[in-house]
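Let us practice reading a record.
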Amino acid sequence: MSSPTVVLVHGAFADAASFAPVTRLLLDRGFRVHVPAVPNRSLLGDSAYIRSVVEEIDGPVLLVGHSYGGAVITVAGVAENVVGLVYFSGYALDEGESLGQLQGGFPDSDLAANLIYTPFPVDGGEPGTDVSVNIDAFPEIFAAGVDREVAEVLAVSQRPLAALAFGEPAPVAAWKVKPAWGVVSAADRTINPDVERFGYERAGFRSVIELDAPHLVMRSHPDEVVTVITDAIADLG
């Protein structure tokens, strides 16, 4: 098999730039990389969009999802040319399960008390609700471990997630038919690390490692993240 294109899928309250250090390292090592912008409007819509991006790529694809991006690749990963899935601080949903259901089985993280809910217009329908992180709390909770000045920029440029996405059940679970690898961010204050551990163990991932890392592990530990990705590529043969 030819080396797959690595598609990096960001999560909520972030954008494609959250993968910038990892993207640079992968490009420097000669890998083909694509980092699409996730709309963050609904799990089903976001997954359909990422799947459409993947299916336009010639050749095999390794899907890498961070945080909410893990839920997105769980659904989008059934695309025929996806050969593997890698989760970082991610939600590995089961078929028929929503983000809220998976997260609800564990104590709240520090994030829950620091979320802001804001209406946004929807053409021809009732307003939607955007969920974002309180800007003042963002550096300590969502961007812990990141340079403070960088964290402040990430806080004011965060990409909200529509509340709708929390309640939508995943129609499929790609990890049931594709090999998967996972990283638990043991110092995560955004997602309870037990949510990550539970999802990965239930799915029977090929490999799960724990890093003493915060939620934005690809910012705080880019070398380790790249090693996990390249090891997964090597494992695929």
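A brief commentary: Residues 27 and 33 are 7 Å apart (CA to CA).
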